[in-house]
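To assess whether the prediction recovers the assembly geometry, we first specified each molecular entity separately, as shown.
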Amino acid sequence: MMKVEQKLFENRYRIDEGHGHVAIREPEICRERCTTRSCTWCCPAGCYGTDEDGGVVLSNDGCLECGTCRLLCDEFDNIDWSYPRGGYGVLYKFG
Ligand code: SF4
Ligand code: SF4
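The predicted structure of the complete assembly is given in tokenized form:
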């Protein structure tokens, strides 16, 4: 059976440089107040990570537009989320 990582590789993604559709509103909240850091473990595309200073970093590349990160950041509502502009973002390959 095909692994999730292999399936993700089947998707195509068109990056909209300079127009990230997901953004962290207040990085200081991530660094200093958030204890769950759910975005760093819930994202199926691994878009969130931590830096050496203890902050949370986000890359829009490969985002599957699932919305999970925004839902799980419910304590601080610290994720600004919208769909990518037309023609950009993930292109799912079915079958
Ligand atoms: S879950 Fe929200 S507040 Fe917590 S680290 Fe992620 S973006 Fe920041
Ligand atoms: S919308 Fe889904 S894939 Fe995109 S950054 Fe959030 S959790 Fe990751």
